[in-house]
Design a protein that fits this description.
14 strands, 7-stranded mixed sheet, elongated, 5-stranded antiparallel sheet, alpha+beta, binds biotin
Length: 316
Amino acid sequence: MAVNEKPSTRSAIVESLRREGGYVPGTRLCEELGVSRVAVWKQVEALRAAGYRIESERKGYRLVQDLDSIQGWEFPDYESRIVHYAQTDSTMDRALELALAGGAREWIVLAESQRKGRGRRGRTWKSEPGGLFCSLVVYPGLALADFALPLMAAGVALCQAVREATGEEAWLEWPNDLYLGGRKLAGILPEFLSSGETIRFMALGLGVNVDNRVGEGATSLRAASGKRVSRKELLRLFLERFEPMKESGYGGEGLGELWWSLSSSQGRAALDEEGNRIGHAKGIARDGSLLVETGRGNVRAYGLGKAALTDKEKKK
Ligand code: BTN
């Protein structure tokens, strides 16, 4: 586990070198950051070990080659919450361990790859390097019946982040997948502990195919858009959108409508668990259930896993 020992100094050095573009005298870094020359040197060495190319001359330090890193020091606003692994079994396991250890601290667990990435319904999640694999530990303080709210908020934030980072029209797909060009781009997995009727904590797992190998029926941002998308930028955009929703108790009444406006599910044919056609998707209820128009103006709510949408009318 690579938890940053001196994240603030490291973060400030990267920021300063990036801002300056050219050489930054070591003495200036020491003054700006209030640390010794040795401390600056140690942090520069750590950054080099992480893959940044930093030149040192008499004139000072210079960033020769930057990195699309998702280490904590790249996210000054969140770095105390970030735990980063080069590889782990599943960020969900690490997130749940942290939550169970107590302290009610929020965490953002990231991994470059996962040995046992997991998805919904017991499926595995292909987790090779190049993807974004993240689990957030949150304490929604919600009733069990409202467990879908953080999930929907994460879906909205992720969809918006992908659209902004790429300019591509990604769409949410009920219950909470993200599709691009008719293929699955990302998935969100909620796992939580409840006590009585109340959620004690929740781990929200986000898997986004950015520039990694994907399974059948899936796509990556690279494959679908032809663009190199920065994982750092994507995560930053996601957190910028998710955090305010979290702070406001997960969007209240407007969240379902926002989710639906970003979804490709409107009017799609819906099937029940046995594969029988039950009607057309009409909306999403506050608890995340799919509202299906079953005929003659009747609308029925189907909970997660109780219905599926046909592929036919999926947006491109
Ligand atoms: C789905 O089945 O659509 C949900 C996939 C969720 C995958 C992510 S990757 C990060 C986190 N760690 C895991 O093992 N799974 C989730």
